[in-house]
Amino acid sequence: MKEIIELSEKTITIDRNEFLKVKGSIDTNMYFIVSGSLRIFVLDEYEERTIRFGYKENLIVSLDSFLTGKPSDLFMQAIKKTVIKVVSKQQINKFLETESNRNLWIKILENLVVQQMEREVDILTNSPKERYERVLKRSPQLFQEIPNRHIANYLRMSAETLSRLKKS
């Protein structure tokens, strides 16, 4: 992943609660988080539904939009002041001209697919306790970086339930 990050010629800072991307925008960039944290969420008719987080040393992207060039349904919002290195799709495409770089890209995409599959299992796990334990085991840093209200939303439970689970 280091090779991808080194492509970045632009660094931006996003303030707390500021949006990096909003629904309907086309994402032509990948983002490497230098410091801070972001959440990715969708907005249904009733509420925000957090589907992913990014924090220090994470690569984050609205992959559907990045790959297809179509508008995304996702919002990306800073949870706290966040410094991000920006890598454009054009830079990625140039990078992919060599076979070794294409192999690296495939590994990155495979990792993103595995993360998505883990997330789907998280959502389908019936018990709030099981969901909490799965995510805690896989991503303990999440509980250091992200406020409980966002984690609770991500886990599809109330903040009170999350608080009880953390105490037990």
From TrEMBL:
Q: Which Pfam families match?
A: cNMP_binding
PROSITE patterns named in the record: CNMP_BINDING_3
Where does the record place the Cyclic nucleotide-binding domain?
A: 1-96
Checking InterPro entries in the record gives: cNMP-bd_dom (IPR000595), cNMP-bd_dom_sf (IPR018490), RmlC-like_jellyroll (IPR014710)
Query: Can you name this protein?
Result: cAMP-binding proteins - catabolite gene activator and regulatory subunit of cAMP-dependent protein kinases
The scientific name of the source species is Flavobacterium collinsii
